[in-house]
Amino acid sequence: MNDLIALDTVDLVLSLGLIGIAIALSLWRKLGLEKQLAYSAVRSLMQLIAIGYILDIVFAIDNWLVVLAILGVMIAIASVVTRNRIDQKLPGLLSTVILSLVASSAFTLGYVILLIVQPDQWYEPQYLIPLAGMLFGNAMNSASLAGDRLLNSINQNRGEIETYLSLGATGKQAISGYQQEAIRTGLIPTLNNMMVMGLVSLPGMFTGQILGGSNPRDAASYQILILFAIVLVNLSTTILITEGIYKRFFNRDEQLIM
């Protein structure tokens, strides 16, 4: 395999031509997406360049406190974004999101790093930060889908839920169907991707490793690891966030309080 072909400043400028073509297409079709495309492109460009320099420094320092600080910032941003994507601003929702993301991601990362990858140092930034980023991003999307679905279901079916409660059902029993549907909703994008991965789509980590010169078989092995880790973190996150939302809607006497 050949080494990675590095892209210089000129190449990045030429890359902007792709966005320029997209903006031109939006203008041609009168879609009104020009400002959004330009803003998103500039923002992502600045963020990626900045994180490239930051991680270069973090890799050079190689200190577990610095690595954990980076992960803390990532999980904090992911939690805020997840909370903002859920339409209803439920009191205490942010803390529920944080606990769900931290618990599910910590368990999954621990399993992957300590039992499978086993780097020389558990906090090896080359492995821990990229793996955490992929897990955080996917867990964030699943949590927002599941949380939004459950909140909307409870609000739209309060009469039915109260009927169940009046007949002696617990709060858990009254919303179990809505919770299960919310969890399934959060997993739909992941399951859909799994069905076509390798046949229709080549995921980012797989293509990135091949571009970097890795053997395709090694790249496939890492992608399988990441894929299964994403399934676990997404499922556990959706379970935890729906449990947290359920507990905020019912008191100890199993009464619907919101």
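the 2nd protein, sequnce then structure:
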Amino acid sequence: MRKGYTLAICGLLLLLSFSESYGQTTIDAEFRPRSEFRQGFNQPLPDTLKSALVTMQRTRLNFNYKGGIISARLVLQDSRIFGETDTKQPATATTGSIGVYEAWAELLLYSGTSFKIGRQGVQFEDGRLFSLSPWSNSGNAHDLAQVRYFAPGFDIQVAYAYNNQKAYNADTSYYSVSKMYKQLAFLHLTKSIASGLDFSFLSVAEGFVKSKTDLDLYHRYTSGGTLQLKNEKLPIGFLLTGYYQFGNSDPTVDLDAYLLAIKATYAFNDKFGGVLGADYYSGSESTLAAAKTNTFNKLPYGVNHSFNGYMEYWATLPKGGLVNYFGGVNLKLSKKLSSDITYYGFRLAESMKVGTTQVQKNLGSELDIALNYKFSAETAVQFAWCGYFATGGTEMLKYKSIAVDTKFPQYAYLMLTIKPQLHETPLVAKASNLHI
């Protein structure tokens, strides 16, 4: 493994000797440690258990090349938890996650059209379905091929992936990578309607192997779009989102579900703004046949941290669906210091039972308070405190009982982000019109 990384780095450094003639190479890094206090993160913590203090770190080394008709990117990443290896860190240690986060090349076919292949992050709109997942310690990336056409006011991307765990000679093995597809295809397009007003459409088809004995695929389809207003000249902005799901949620269950969401922002002045919104994830009634579901499936390639609260209580949706309404303020306290305060309320979209017990529809609420301080263009720190106000509905869904004594759910973290630029060659060649 170390030999492979050494060769990769040496090859990229060799590009520096050519970049003065052929293009531009940049090298930058990211160091991001985050300490978290967990006393009820994701679910209430029973009184019998101790709160946790965890520190994790993500480190990245990014190589980028752009010249003529070629662009390329390689990102090496180390994701780890403090203390998971001993002080000598033997070469045979399997803990941590040292590897390649992104490795792709993009070729300009003709003006505005490109072909991109390799391991790559995918981000659309606010990251609800596909996201780079910047909060995650590992991020999201996909192994796929993509064709893109870009013109002023119009952007379309078509991609396809087909996964295997090993280089088999016959397609006779069960693909069992957790929360991953065997087959993926998506179409995404964005059209500018007016200055700052964009409409986007996304259609996703996922294929999963049915079982270890039946290697045929079942498919889940998600289609919808977003209308977004974001214009710095206007104090108001909004995001309207709608998606419909159909196909199968597993080999024997028919899927018919939807998601509706709205988010509106308003800047009262340069220092004070507000946000209001709601998400509606459809759910299944308790009387629905077992072979059918109306519960929206959150795609695992999106970002959970940006939706439904920092404590991620409903990262996995209840069978009865979810209604999330929220409101908050954002404050610019100084040139370097800002704050975001958001309150969330949660309810079941449909009545549901745990066993024979009816679940209370009110699932509680959450308060998130975040402080952001920017030391420089390369360095920032974020502190947040979050509290969850649980109800009997919360405890019933998390523990299938309301008799579990729990501590007050709270969560706090301190995160430092440092992104230094290590090297940049001057761009002397004529820049291509390849849009990245």
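The longest strand covers residues 24-39. Residues 2-86+96-166+178-424 form a domain with the Porin fold (CATH 2.40.160.100).
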